[in-house]
Amino acid sequence: MMETALVFAASLVIGFGIAAFIFLLVRPRSAAPDPAATERMVELNTRVQQMGELLAKAQTQLQHSVNERLDAVTQRLGDSMQTSTKHTGEHLAKLNERLAVIDSAQKNITDLASHVTSLRDVLANKQARGAFGQGRMEAIIQDGLPKGAYEFQFTLKNGKRPDCVVLLPDQRPLVIDAKFPLEAITALRESKTEDERKLAAQRVRQDVMKHVTDIAEKYLIPGETQDTALMFVPSESVYAEVHDGFDDVVQKAYRLQVMLVSPTLLMLAIQVIQQIQKDSQMRQAADQIRTEVGHMMKDVSLLGDRVRKLQNHLGQTTEDMNQILTSTGRIEKRASRIEELEFDDNDDAPASNVIAAPLRKLGAGE
Fold first, then answer.
1. Which class would CATH give 127-282?
2. What are the domain boundaries of the chain?
């Protein structure tokens, strides 16, 4: 509003000045000065001066107001720039953190890719694949059973050496052998036509049954090992593929007393074996406790006999003490009579029980 008023006043002063200038230009020069016109000119000049002063004052106020506005705008702009700088710094710090996380994730992905590549190389080699399956089996058994309850590369009487045996309480080991029919399963998964799938399925049956037959013939020895052996498949997906798509192979393995187990099923089997060993230890402890209790009962019986004998001795001693006390009472009574010179023929003791006192001769001087 103030700026509008100042502009209007300035416009008004400029208008008056222009009007006075035009009036001076257009008035006739030969004419005699008119007092009224001269008075009006003086009044006009006065008004122009007043308007100039008002304009200067308004200009000063306008400049002061503009300076205040510029200072406020500058301060706000500085605050805004400071806030923006702070927010930008925070955003850059968060961005750096996220970039660090992304770098770490990228490094992990690179490491994982290298591990996957190395795992693929391991699985491509039969010997390395066998070592991988055996290592995983050993890790599961070592985590689940105490030392002394299992043995790796155990030699049987026929000279064969399974990957692992678990020693059960009946002294017959449970055989566990790791097999990994990966190539046949991979060929089955990569088959595109029906003929390729049939050939791959036939290869899976042959490979799995070969493993099962080898375990049954080499490691199941009547009287030496358990009647059942475990074939460990170190891949859940491979086990699921065999178990779901080749039920006839699984049934033939059951009939040959060979059970296919995945890592999860092997863990469950190890837990069952743990319970069997604990039950055996409890039974052995119960037999030992029963034997010790029998010995303790025998000792308690002997202690009872000895206590009864002691009781009899104590009873006899009590009776003897009572008789001693009775004799002591009689002696005291007779001593009292002798002292009072009172003799009574009616004595409690029978005459046959009275022992005559020996008489001795009195010598001279007595």
1. alpha beta
2. 127-282
